[in-house]
């Protein structure tokens, strides 16, 4: 299954090279192979960590039975960041076929009974009625089940997967500019007679790219840190245009300061919590209904959360139950699935480790965090008054979530926020072909998955896995029949 060319200096010839083996890369490789192409998959991580965010995701995909309504929903989610209509049509028809395709790999698929079972995350938008739930392998969320199915399908077909072999650059034809193959980190060269598929994931694992395009500094990530923008850079080097570079999904996350991986902060046992900025001032409704990255605030769909914050709570909330869920609650995320971390039931392990600051009084907490004491005290006082009144006049937080912060000690941690994934990368067309800055096709180069997400703005649950499958399959099929 895993091998290298006999000599790193040999120029090897195959039909299709797929870079990355998450959902998009696996879909591309399987589809190209089944169409008769000789395929090589290059995966930068070792076998035990391969698969990128797909490996640690919920492994669920958006399911629907109405491409016309799905297209309406996607257009509405894009807002004023419209996508080309051929891309919308490819997405809406392709997402309808995902459940059947996964089933064709020899497993049962079905709806998950809880997550996203109530319908779309943006029910107010036209077309949201198309949302028919989140489908998963055997209807079970997470635990790496989807990636295990994909990896087995590659192995069963004898597709050549080369672990610990990152690609470093693309090769091109000097006369036409078309992509002809790849160079690996070891100096090996592979010629792809029909095409190269970039399926390298996003750029959330690269602090400089995150700082440049998202304006966030040194933030933790929820998934694989191998998503360092490799495909983005390789595509730019051959003249690719970019899209969606300022779009992302971020969440309220908490982390061990010595680690780059974070944990979802869920606060399901008590809603006695507020967010304040570095000035100590509360700045948003902490529990505004939101989708996978955006929320409707002041009449606009905006990133939520979108900036660093301190998350403040009291002893009652601390003792109510764990802030972050373990695998028996939500079996997703790198720390939970790959590192096997189980959050303490009373949050004290994490407090004692210094992940969460503590103060016997709000003034003590301000000293522990560096927040201005007067502003922090005023923010808590104003919030508690809103709880007493049952109305959050400033930010409109639901009365059902207004739980006061009254019982000392008080606690706080800094959230970067935590990046789940980025959306931006090389622009592509409905055939998953990468486009140059002048709008022309870069022949022989394809992109799928979060290296080049379809979603220009808002997105719903299961959209990213569905999108990866749709355009991974499109890329694999188109490359397999292309004459180089």
From TrEMBL:
The keyword Kinase does not apply. It comes from the Bacteria. Pfam families: FAD_binding_2. SUPFAM superfamilies: FAD/NAD(P)-binding domain (SSF51905), Succinate dehydrogenase/fumarate reductase flavoprotein, catalytic domain (SSF56425). InterPro entries: FAD-dep_OxRdtase_2_FAD-bd, FAD-oxidoreductase_2, FAD/NAD-bd_sf, Succ_DH/fumarate_Rdtase_cat_sf. The keyword Acetylation does not apply. Its cofactor is FAD. Keywords: FAD, Flavoprotein, Oxidoreductase. Coiled coil: none annotated. Residues 15-461 form the FAD-dependent oxidoreductase 2 FAD-binding domain. This is Succinate dehydrogenase/fumarate reductase, flavoprotein subunit.
